[in-house]
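Thread: Exosome complex exonuclease RRP44 homolog A, structure

OP (GT): Posting the sequence first so everyone is looking at the same thing. Length is 935 residues per the record. Can we get the structure tokens written out before standup tomorrow? I want them in the notebook alongside the other entries.
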Amino acid sequence: MLQSKSFVKKTKQGRIQKVVREHYLRDDIYCGFAPCSTCAAAAERKLDAAAAAILVVDTNVVLHQIDLLENPAIEDVVLLSVVLDEVKNKNLAVFNRIKALCTNKARRFYVFANEQHRDTYVKDMVGESSNDRNDRAIRVAARWYQNHLGESVKILLITNDRDNKRKAIEEGLNAETVESYVRSLAQPGLLDLVVVPTSGDVTMEDAEDHRPSKKKVIYNEHKPMSEITSGLRCGIYHQGKLRVNRYNPFEAYVGSESIGDEIVIHGRSNMNRAFDGDIVAVELLPEDQWHESKSFIADDDEEEEEDVHLVPNSADDAPRNTSSTQSSVGSSAPSVSSRPVGRVVGIIKRNWNSYCGSLQPMPMPAGSGGVAHALFVSKDRRIPKIRIQTRQLENLVNKRIVVAVDSWDVLSRYPSGHYVRTIGDIGDKETETEVVLIENDINTRPFSTQVLACLPPLPWTLSPGDLANPNRQDLRHVRVFSVDPPGCRDIDDALHCTLLPNGNFEVGVHIADVTNFVHPGTPLDEEAAQRGTSVYLVGQRIDMLPKPLTEDVCSLRADVERLAFSVIWEMTPDADIISTRYTKSVIKSCAAMSYVEAQARMDDSRLVDPLTVDLRNLNSLAKIMRQRRCDRGALTLASAEVKFEIDSETHDPLDIGIYQIREANQMIEEFMLAANISVAEKILKHFPLCSLLRRHPSPTKEMLEPLLRTASSVGLNLDVSSSKALAESLDNAKNNDPYFNKLIRILATRCMTQAVYFCSGDLTFSEYYHYGLAASLYTHFTSPIRRYADVVVHRLLAAALEIAKLPPIFQDGPQLTGIADNLNYRHRNAQMASRASVELHTLIYFRTRPTDTEARIVKIKANGFIVFVPKFGIEGPIYLTPKGDKGGDWIVDEVHQRVTKPGTNISYAVLQTVRIHMEVVEPQPHRPKLQLTLI
């Protein structure tokens, strides 16, 4: 049966165009109920014959009650296609979660294509809103199920929409709210998962403040979207993402493109219920209110952000201007700042997630089994306390739990939320590791059977077809080898370096041909696209692809034949590229070395075997290439990468130190960079509008200000007019201190923006520039086992070489942009999870090992200073005044970055070396920290 659906759309030229699409209706779409005599023979039998009721849920139930739906107590659920489509349009994260439930064979969730069924399809009615049309479609589908299955099972429509429920009952359907249905299950713990309606936020008893005055209006109402849109257009409001200061959760920053600067937001009232990561509309305050007071080290009692953390690698980890103080020397009065100050007037897009933490200690209420109100304290101190109600308080005390936010009313000091699940005991390493993963939205679910079904049969071996493929070159005779970190099993890159008769070198970078096994549109491809990247924790890896691919089929291990995608150059001895070619290939690596092994070979003058000679030739070329890059303006930055020695039995850290970078590391890096640049040039030439590239925006003057202030205070003049000027300045930043230059480079690294993926059609060519590499073009090609971006680029390169068709997704600009956005989000989260894992293991290591060591002052505050500990790569505060004392008698000299006690010769300056004591303490329940004190 054929239906015609028509709609109008606006073209890029501004014309209105009517679009008519054919919509096919069928009568062979089955109900999914196991005993159904009509459908059972052909249907997927997901709905149980013994079900007390089959649940048909509406869109809002899925959007707002996903935590409840994921509980195993909720089964035999029908998800209508109209509901899934609406959820996908409104919240992609929830859509992915409900989709995972529907594809999980252990759960009884059945997708019914009501929009394609002849008996359940509904036509649009004149004057009917899309929401009303979808509600009607849900009721029609529920009625069809009721008529189709008759008396064999009860059909129950679950909705919190009063109007939808009323109409359903009037039409003879069984309908209940979420809460009434859950109560009927007689499992009180499930009620904790039910999202509290917004109105409940007003009437629910506050867990901490019982005074009547709490019901006064605390926050301003958010402006309606119509007013926000008009205000943004007129320049009254400014849009941007809110980032809460990691040092001070009562201060936030909104980067605004409309004014080309960051807007400072002071205080929770001006944040107006916005969470970190929300897209907000901001109104600027009058200029006479653009004040910034002294910057202090946060006290634990003030619920400030964690004091000890890894040194951030970008400005996104801290405010763009986290300098010491903005006050004049010795003055306690605030000064007028050049930075605009504003307040949040509306939320354009929420960034509410599930949060990990624990309940704030409180007296246990009398009796048991009733509803108790409690405050949840997130481990991430940028997140405000969240008020929840629970019927299982005694089971949640001293546990790490997950809580989701439901609402935040203007009358409430705290947002309201609901309990999701318990992770485990506070302090348990496995529990705390899971917290890290949840906080950073890392997907740790086992790969589904559908994903695993996409893998090739094992053991995998090279086939005659692979060798006969005219698009694949046989390079098994070439001396190929790999150099990776010790113990690496997912080897996705290898090299060769052959001396040619003309005195030049043939240099090849060979990358695992992952796209030979991961095909577009398959469950395996969709899973990899969603995960985005592998995640590396201390002693643990969460894979983007299943291990049979990462550690076997695709891994370029020694002495086995493997498929590769190769970039091969002819280079002169001066590292000039004569020619470049790209080919799919077959290789057989002769050696898989660690960086230490490769370095030892190059350094041992007694070794003159061919493999060692190849390594030395590559290293000679790499040094020239590296110098050439630096001459162009590429930055040599530094970060404190921490390395742990882990006990093989307990998995606890035995030792901690800074990871050592060798020439072998730099050699491999140089050729990977060169391959990425070559591939970027190739794909952009063929696909100027849909290439996936990587850019690194130049840091702003405000971002570089902390570095310039620090450098100036020690007599160092840094030229930041360009990356080349900064690179030369960093090279000349030397004194008698051997660690001085590295420390300056670490501080420079912290001022950088994040490099990001983007679709070439979204930006102009001048915006493609990679500041850190001083490269006009760059992409990621060399790690497809670990990064989905590289998988995308492999497909682009194959299409550019005309050995594969370009997948249709590359013709969809918005979808490709969405892929880039997800890759940036996943890459960022993987970085944060990795750092959090290092922090966790640092706490575990020092818990039983109080230590005295040297530290360097990197930031001056009014009540102390921040130090960096070179030996362990961590940073933390040193207090000069008693807790709560805002500065005392100490005077800050902003120009010279020095804090001095008047009347004494006691002073401390930035970059000064101090001796400190390090010890783990617990100033607040469930919040251990590494405390640093002067010796």
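GT: Both are above now. Quick notes for whoever picks this up: The CA atoms of residues 890 and 902 lie 7 Å apart. Residues 813-847 form the longest helix (35 residues).
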